[in-house]
Each structure stands twice: as C-alpha cells, then as structure tokens.
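Researcher: Next entry in the queue.
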Amino acid sequence: QNRNKDICVVNRTDFDSGEVCIITEEGNFKSRYQGDGLTFDPCGICCDSKMNIIVSDYSNTCVHLLTCEGEFSAYLLTRDTLLGDPWCVGIYNDCLWLGCNRGRIERYRLLYKDS
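Model: Structure for this entry, 115 residues:
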C-alpha cells in the first residue's frame, strides 16, 4: 500500500509477462503500467517514502521507478548496474533491497533530489 492509500500489485498475465495495477483504497481501478515497450516481466513491487512505485523486472534485468499514478519515471537500475536478475524488492531505512537470482541480495541507498 502506498502512502496515498492506493494498493499497488503485480498482475502476472503469462509465464514471463505481467503488469502493475493500481487500485484505490475503495477498491476502484486507478491505472495500469505494462512496461515501456519491452516485454515487461514484473516480479516484485514496493513503494518508497515519496510515494514512488518501484518494480523489479526479471527478464529485462532492471528496476523501474513509477510515479504514484503508475507512469514511468526512470530506470533505477539496469543490466549494467545490477549483479543479478531482480526477483523481489523492498524498502527499509531509505535503502532499496533486491532479492536476485542465485541467492544474491543487493542493497542500494536511495538518494532524493531536494524538491
């Protein structure tokens, strides 16, 4: 659940593809994110303290950053920066924790530009 009380979930639509669905606190559909043009393989999802949505994309070896409205903002991490394929994501103490293949756990400090 995001700070704005929206519920953000990964909906698997096939073995190696899916989408992110955002649902309001009342249970109404709000938006859907299906990737940025590539086959999207979301596995893990979490929200940060700024209400951004963070999604691990296993097949593309990257981590997507979405706005609280479910719009693509940036890639936080890509194949060039990750040491493994990201399965799950979590936030704790302003750090992004990734569970990757082969039992690897990666930790990244989240830094925000001043508003």
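Model: Strands lie at 7-14, 17-23, 29-33, 42-47, 53-57, 62-66, 72-77, 86-92, 95-100, 105-109.
Researcher: Noted, moving on.
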